[in-house]
Structure formats: C-alpha cells, structure tokens
Fold:
Amino acid sequence: MRLLHKLLILLFCAVMIPIGLAAFFLSSYRAQARNSVMTLQKNVVQLSALMAEREMQDLSRRFDRMEIPDSGHISREDLFSIIGKNPEFLFFALADRQGNALQSGGDPEFVRLFGNASPEGDSLFLEARRTGRPAAGDFENMFNIPACRIVYPFGSDRYIFAIVSLRDLADKLEQQKLASGGLLLADNDGNSILFAQALEKFSKDTIKAMTEAEGLMRVYGENGSRLYIVFSEPVRGTNLRLIAVREEAEAFASLNRMSWLMAFLALAVATALYFSALFFARKAGQPLEALVSASKRIAIEDFKTPISVHSEFKELSDLIDSFNVMMKELQRYHGIHLEKIFEEKHKLELLISLISDGIIFCGLDGSLMYANDAAMKILNGGDKELPPEERQKKILSLFQKTSSEEKIINVSYEDEEKCYAVNARPVYAKTEAQSVFITLHDITLERELRRIKEDFFSSAAHDLRAPLLSMQGYVKLLEYAVKEKKEKEYVANLNDSSKRLFALIENILDFSRLDSGSFSANPQKICLDDFFNEAARLFEPVFSEHGISFSYENRMPPGHIFEADPDLLRRVTDNLLSNAVKFTPEGGSVSFIAEEASADLVRMAEAEISGNIAERPAERKDIRLLFTVKDSGPGIPENKLKEIFEKYRQLGNRRGKGFGLGLAICKKIVELHGGFIWADSGKGAAFHFII
Structure:
C-alpha cells in the first residue's frame, strides 16, 4: 500500500499544479479588481467635487454682481429684484457686521421660517466674519428641496445671508452612478446633505470623521451592521467636502461571487481528480507492488518465484512478462556462475596445495582461515599436529614480528633444520574483517649456496694472495729489465692488472672477515681536526687533476676528540671520496663536511635503516659525528638508494672501474662502529654516515 499511496500522491500533486496556478492568478485578479473598484469610487468623488466647486464659483459670481446701495439700506423693490433674478435663492437677507438683519425676503414659506431669524451667533456667520471668506453649511432637505445656508461677505461691513437651493447640483451629482452607494456634501461641523436614498443616515460625528480622513476610510453605519468604504475630496474655495460612500459588501459582491465560484469549481475538480487518481492508482499499484516484491527476491538471489499478478494496463502487463523472463535467465546464469566459481575455487586450492612455499591466510588475532600443506608442515614443525591454541600463537608471532621487510626464521625438523623467508601483508576488504596474508619461502638451499660461494671466494682469494705478491715482485724486476718502449707498456699493463686483482682479493677478504664477524674494530682516541684535514688534503690533488672543485669544512669545535678505528674509518672516507671522483664530471663540485649529528637526525636515520643492523648497540650519550660527501654528478635513481650498499652492485660511471664492494665494506665498517650510513639524491648524490 505504500507504493499505492505514493503513486496516488504523485498523480494528485501533478493535477493540483494547474489548479494552484489558477488560484494564484485568481488571487492576483481579485486584488486588481478591488483596486479598480476603489479607483472608480475615488474618480467619481473627484469629478463630483469639481462639479460642486463650479457650482459654488457660480454662486460667488452672482453675489459679486448684485447691485446693493452703498448706504447699506436696501429697498423691498431691490430685494425682490435680486430674488427674481436668482430663483435658486429661497431666502435672502442683508445683515450688518453685528449680525442685525437690514432687509430680508424670499419664498413665503422660508420667510415664515427665517424672517425673524438673526445671523447673530450663527456659526457660519462667525466663521465668515473671522475669515473674510464665504461660509456654507447647515444642509437641509426643506420641503423636498435640498438647500444649504451661505454667508457671503459683501463689502467691509455687510454680509449676505442666503438659503440656496441645490437642486441643480443634486441633479448633476445623481448622474454620477455609484452602484450601492451615494454622495454626501458636508461642512466641517458634520452637517451634510445626502444625494442618494439607499444609504442610511450617518451621525454628525461620523460625517465629521469622514471630512477629516485622507484617502480610503472604512466606517460602520448608525446601526453598526453595514461597513462602508469612504473617499472624501475638498471643494476648493469653500469649507465643504464631497464624500463618496459605498457599502463594501455590495461594492465587491460580484468579485466575491466569482471568487467563491472559482473556489467551488477548483474543489469540485480536485475531488474528481482525487477519486480518479485513487481509482487509477489502485489499478496500477498492485502490479507495481508485485514488481517491487520480485526485485527484493532477486536481491536475496531468489529467482524461482515468478510474478503471478496481471494488470489491465498493457504496458504493465508487458513489463511483468519481461520481468518473469528475466528472472528465469538470471536463475540460469546464476547456476552457471556458481558452478564456475566452484570450479575456479577447486583449481585454486589444487594449485596452492602444489606450491612448495607455505601460504597462510589468517585473522588479525592469528586465527587460521586457510593454510596449504607446506604451511601446515612448517607450523607443526613436521608431520605432527599442534593444538589449535599453540598454532594460533605461532601464526600471531609470525606477522607481528614481520614488517614490510622480509624476516628470516629457522624451523627445526626431526632430521634437519630449514630456513624460511617470511613476508606478511594485510588484506583490506570492504565486506569482511581485516586479515593477513603470509608467505613462507624456503631459502635453506639459497643460504647454503651463498655460504659455499663465500667460502669459495674467501679460500680462492686467500690462496691467490701469496702467488700475486710473488708475481708483483717479478713484475717490479721486469720494469728495470726491459728497455723497449713497447715492452715497458706491456709490463705496465701487467702491473696495473696485478694491482687491481690484488685490490679485489683484499676487498673480498676484508668483506668476508667483516661479514663473518671475525673482524673487530680497534677504537682509539682521534683528533677530528687531524683526521679530517689529512683525508681532505690527500684528495685535493686528485680532484684538481680531474678539474673538479673540492671544498671541505669541519664544523666541530677545534680539538674535538672522538673514538674510532682510524684505519677502518679512513677506509670509509677514502671509498666515498673515490666514488665522488668517479661520478663527478669535469667542472663539477664535491663537498666534504664533518659536523655534530642532532638527536632528531639520529632517530630519523635509525627509523629509516631499521632492520639493517642485526644487533644495534645501546643508545649512546656522547656526541655523534655526521660525515657528508656530496657531489654534483648524475645522482642515484630512487629505487637504487638502498641497493647500492649490497655486494657487487654498481652504477654506471664516467671514469674508473670498481668491483661493487666499496659501499658494502663502508656499510659494514660504519655498522661495526654502531653507526648508520645512507644515501640520498637530488642534484647529484649525497652520502651520509653517523658514528
């Protein structure tokens, strides 16, 4: 059902997107329509205020054209003449500055009402006298005639008090159609006249608040049940304001009806689409659920159960049929793949069992996971069977003591003892715990052959030494006996060859003694200044002869004394400086430096060369010396930096020939002094040794 719900939600959301867009556009249209309605009302009140302004300007011009005697007394004939010329004057009176009526007249009904009235104390009269401008107000609907009172300053000390009919203005304003609303003409005191019968009455305080408002205002009617929107506009040149009032519900009635209609339509469409999507999802959900379940079965390698559900949708039905066919093919290929894996495993096990080297696969705790027959024989020490606990401890000790370098172990059998090279490598797997792969290679024969070879070379070198010494003696005699130039060259070549052969024999013998441990150093107290300067002076002519710049520097304090075998140490410096001569081209440079070795450098050297010294002496408390020979030759390849210290290993050079034993002898001598020797390469080669 979870897939069904997701499909249902997906379909429903896809259909609701256009409905949401329609709602957005409807909201935008509604806002624009509301603005249009209020703009229309604002325009109507502005136009009506302009009409009222023109009407009041016309009345002002009439007042200004009236012919009233300067004496201030007006006759009845003049009064009726003025009223006759201005029929909209329902009542007309002339008053002095104190508000006393000088003469009055007009329509009999209005004369009866206002004939005895005096402007004195009237608010309009007081305002006109204070400001010196016309004042209008006190609107009334008298005898079904809209009228207002006007006080007009006439001259410096006379005022016209008139009740004027606003019928013409009312007819004009009624032409400004304002559905469900109307117009009010009001003064500052809240007196007003309404130009619409549909609107309810408003109190003076409410109308006064309308005149003081700027822009849009909302007010409730007297009974508080209706809300009106109000715009007011001043009638310029007067104290009047024209107010447009419209019931809000009626103003936006059509817009609200349209919004509700669209909302109902959207709800109806959404409901119909929901049930349609529900129906479709139920039809499509069951086959999809079956496909999901089948995919999960495939993930756990269950290919036997096909999908039995059928769909009314042709596409889903074809997909189910194709899926069932795929499951059958996967089942077939899975069986073939398993058979192939088993065959390959059997071949691999057979191949490993036939290998003479021991192969062990174990966990980090030494637990045995796999071992071939050769490895089991090595672990058991023969054909006997070790307990699993002892075997686990033995395996654990093998890879714990073995780093990236090979380790040599000896295994004793009943009738013989064998030597094995042990190499352990960690195996990293993402799905399984970390394990260790160990190989044990039988090097018993190799070591025996090497021992025999060393013995042979040592014996041969020892036996050849005496004849060579005799031969060199006879060669010396021949040098004095021969006189011909060509014969002298032959004797010189013979002498050089014998010297080279004698040097090779000496090196072989020295290395054999050093390698066997039968050779011991004879340490003496040596003055570093004498030793260093003598070594440098001996090689100065050699470097000068080959055009090589040679510099040497002793950075230790004068008179520094150290202990070492001077002959053996001289052998080391001579070999390193001789190599520098061989590998440095003409015009190059060689430097020879002696200085104090820092504790950090000693630790770094020990870590770098760890495993190369069989028995390292205890840490020394005295000052360690660092000797460096650096040349500007071609340098040493990175993969040859350790290999060059092995026997009979040489790199190509430009001048001179060697035997590949010099650096091996240097290494043995330095180690004999409890020190370290190493090389690095950059722009040329550099050899360092610490004693």
The first strand starts at residue 89 and ends at 96.
